[in-house]
Design goal:
heterodimer, A: alpha+beta, disordered N terminus, B: alpha+beta, OB fold (Dihydrolipoamide Acetyltransferase, E2P), five-stranded mixed β-barrel, globular
């Protein structure tokens, strides 16, 4: 028993890391060696990238801040409260996650770099196509969920500068942190070696935050994985039948979402202890 | 005791590392303080996104039959957990352990599904912040 438990300790995290995000289960080892280069000489960021398990608490833009507290302005504090108390998770409504949420979530994603296009493919059919053809921001771009994205290369770093976002329709992260229409993000993507993709993200939103927010994380290459069809609107009865409440629910002191000390499930049934229906006390 | 702690830590690290396939936070819809066990005959399976649903007829103490919906992960999450669509046949008696929806409807989060062959499979959406089920016998 002791030997089994020790084996479990060693094997469980490896099993977890062997599973990717939205793609097929990883089949090969993490690539090693230098980052590959594209025909134009830039690092080639192409690949399926899975979370490395270290961006904790997951889905929290303030993960590196004391007590996970973002530098809200009074308007930002009020917008966060409003999101929690009055809005359904926009991703549950099948809206695109947008930025910065897609950078903060823990799903894997597929990246395809081809000439002057860098395409990110996310869960639920969401994608963004970042041009790297030397164009500048337009004078009056239409607001979108990912903003108007302009890619440039700074040495071996792909820099994506995005502005012109839709206003507060989407959450900035899984914890319902807000963003406004003046959101401006700068992503600096590097592939330090074949197996890793790193992001340094700066989020500016002076309506809701007193100072720029800095966020960084790393993904791991997952050869053989691909994003899969997941039609968000196929059977979304959480929303259509009104089951889903407002906000993300309770947020724990450790910055994650969920209940402190939830009641445990009963042990699985066995032949000697067959199951019978158990409803909560006083349930009608 | 140290071993128990180490196993707990390993389990926690597993849960922290499991990739999310969540469409919404568990606690936005379900009550972590209202665990439920349903035993009943399968009447319908919806193997769909963003969630799969199993509907079962459950008989209460007075003999009344109520049809309950059990919300599971999407097909990708369930297949990774070791459950295939063919594992569920209409009329089968299954056991679903989960948590009651906050809105009081006959809907639960299917955290663990015990199939007629005795396998207990993790049925939830990984990474949704819901209570873990470390006792499911199939892999997560």
């Amino acid at each position: 028993m002791k030997r089994f438990a020790v084996a479990l300790i060693l094997v469980l995290p490896a099993l977890a890391l062997a599973q990717g995000g939205g793609g097929r289960r990883q089949t090969g080892p993490v690539p090693t060696g230098p980052a590959p280069r594209a025909a134009n000489g830039h690092p080639d960021l192409t690949g399926y990238w899975r979370d490395d398990g270290n961006a904790n608490p997951h889905g929290n833009l303030g993960k590196d801040y004391p007590d996970f507290k973002l530098p809200f302005t009074p308007a930002g504090e009020a917008a966060h409260k409003y999101n929690i108390e009055h809005t359904i998770d926009p991703e549950s409504l099948c809206l695109p996650g947008g930025l910065p949420r897609e950078d903060v979530g823990d799903m894997g994603f597929q990246l395809i770099q081809s000439g002057a296009d860098t395409v990110f493919i996310y869960q639920y059919g969401t994608f963004r196509d970042v041009p790297t053809d030397g164009r500048k921001h337009a004078e009056d771009p239409d607001p979108t969920y990912f903003g108007e994205e302009i890619g440039t290369w700074d040495g071996d770093t792909l820099v994506i500068d995005s502005s012109a976002f839709k206003d507060s329709k989407t959450w900035a992260d899984e914890n319902a942190d807000p963003h406004s229409d003046v959101l401006h993000t700068v992503e600096r993507w590097t592939r330090p070696d074949a197996g890793h993709l790193h992001l340094e993200l700066t989020v500016e939103d002076p309506k809701f935050y007193k100072a720029p927010i800095h966020y960084q994380r790393t993904w791991i290459a997952a050869p053989g994985q691909h994003t899969r069809e997941q039609a968000c609107s196929e059977n979304n009865i959480d929303v259509s039948e009104g089951h889903l409440g407002f906000g993300p629910g309770p947020i724990r002191a450790d910055g994650t979402r969920g209940y402190d000390n939830p009641d445990p499930l009963p042990p699985p049934p066995t032949k000697s202890n067959p199951a019978k229906t158990i409803l909560p006390a006083n349930y009608h | 005791m140290k071993l128990r702690l180490a196993v707990f830590v390993a389990g926690a690290s597993l849960l922290a590392a499991v990739p999310a396939l969540a469409h919404h936070s568990f606690s936005a819809e379900f009550d972590g303080h209202k665990p439920v066990r349903l035993v009943g005959a399968l009447t319908k399976v919806e193997w769909t996104n963003p969630h799969s649903y199993f509907y079962i007829d459950v008989k209460d103490d007075k003999g009344n039959v109520v049809n309950w919906g059990c919300e599971g992960g999407g097909p990708l999450a369930l297949s990774r957990a070791g459950m295939k669509r063919g594992d569920l046949k209409i009329g089968d008696t299954i056991v679903v352990d989960g948590y009651l929806a906050k809105d009081g409807s006959h809907l639960i989060d299917a955290r663990r599904v015990t199939l007629p062959d005795g396998r207990s499979v993790y049925g939830g959406s990984p990474g949704d912040g819901g209570p873990p089920d470390t006792s499911a016998t199939s892999k997560k």
